[in-house]
Structure formats: structure tokens, C-alpha cells
Input
Amino acid sequence: MGHHRADHRAVRGLPSATRAPAQPGRHAAVQSAVVRPQRARTRILGAVPTLFGVAVLAVAGTGAVGTSPGSDLPRGVSATVASAPAASSSESQAVEGQEIVIDLEEREAAISRDSQRQALQDAADAELVEAAEEQAVERNATLKSLAKATEQRASQLRADQWTIPTSNYRLTARFGQSGGYWSSNHTGLDFAAPSGTPIVSVAAGQVTETGYDGSYGNKTVVTLTDGTEIWYCHQTTVDVQVGQQVGSGQQIGTVGSTGNSTGPHLHLEVRPGGGDPVDPYQALVVNGLTP
Ligand SMILES: [Zn+2]
Output
């Protein structure tokens, strides 16, 4: 390609060697070179092929830097021709002509660079969008994870939530009370309530024991998830079976007066780890309840 275009310009150099430097016909020369390339090429073919090669190499070596101030094609042409000596060689003309070609190539290259720059910018934008989308996905995943954790925590709190074990009651005997009625200090908290009043589990757990137990009468033991045993005594009825899972507030039986009892009431005991009893009242208070 470059050689063909160089041919056009080089032709101009041959006749111009006979012209005066500031010859006003330079525009005509340019025109003839541009407008009649076919004829010009015909005239010099075989005459300066080697010269063209030198010119092209020279331009290629200096790159596009050699373009005259302002890269507009007409000005580049004028400056070139005006500065060319009368007896300038075909080579210099060819070089100048090549410069014009380079001007065009430079312009094309500039356009190409602009396109490339735009493409790079587009790519960068695309990467930013992609990164933003990835962040959004991550954020959503994090929020979902947080929501799940919150729900699990709420579920756990609900499971841990304690409930007053019966209703329509009044407290008639506290933990640790002593008296002739008990062989030792009172081991639980008494909720006096009408016979048949529902008894509910104070918290979530598993039924680990049911049945008649001497002075305790009909008794149900629910073991909570932390291992604490809750004893419900003197029941009229037992509504659950060993091994059954119960939730906080779920009915497990009814108030009665079975065993060593002077009247219908719920005797409630709290035994951490299945060991010695602690004050049920305090246990309820610790769990946010005031019986
Ligand atoms: Zn009692």
C-alpha cells in the first residue's frame, strides 16, 4: 500500500526538478499528482523504484513526527513544495509526498486511537458495572445471611422465652419456706388455682418423666434445652408423654391436689442440670417474668 501511494507523490518530483523553487504552479503540481495518479505512475515506473524504497524507509524510520506544523493536508503540501530546492531530488519530493500520506495515515491512526480509547473506556465502564453488580450480589447475600441469622436468633429467643406455668393463681408458698408441713424446707413455688386449670410448660424442652411420685402426686418433668429440669406436681391430669417435645406455653396437664397436698395447686420446682432445686420465683424473674 505504502509503495503505491509513494508512487503518486514521487511522480511529482520528476517534473518539478525543472521548475523554479517558488513557482506558483505548485498547486497544479499537487493537483496533477493527486488527480492524475495513473498517468504519473506510468511515467516513472521503472525510473525510481529504488528511490521510493529509500523514501518509504526514511519515513518509516522517522515515523509521523516529520509532519509539518498543523497536520492539515493542504498546508503540509504547500510548505513542502515551497521549501524544496529547485533541483531537489526525487527522493526529497517523495519523502514530502510520503509525509502527506503519513498525515492521512496519522489521522486515521488518531481516529483509530480514539476508537480504541473509547473501547477501553467502554471496557472500563463495563468492568465498573460488573464490579457494582458483584457488590450488589454480595450485599444481598450478606443481607439475606443477616436476615437468616436474625430469624434464627428470634426463633431461639422465642424458644428460650419463658411462660408463667398456670393462670388464675395466687402464690401460697415460697421456695425455702420452713414449716411443720414439710419434712425439710419447701423445695418449690406453690401456685394455688382451681382444679383443672391448665398447666403449661415454662419453656421449650422435652418431657422426660411422667407419673405418680409419692408426696408429689402426679408429676411431669420437662427437661429444657440447657438441661434444667422443671417439675410440675399434684396434677389432676398429665397431658403429655415421655419423649414428647413441648414448646414454651404448651399445655402439659391440669392443676390438682394429688399427693401430699391440702388443696389444688401447682407445686413448681426448678432443678438446674437435674440437681438440687433453686428458687423458681427467681428463675422466672431471671427469665423476664414476675409471677
Ligand atoms: Zn409446694
About this structure: The helical segments are 2-16, 26-35, 37-44, 49-62, 73-83, 90-160, 280-286. Residues 11 and 42 are 9 Å apart (CA to CA).
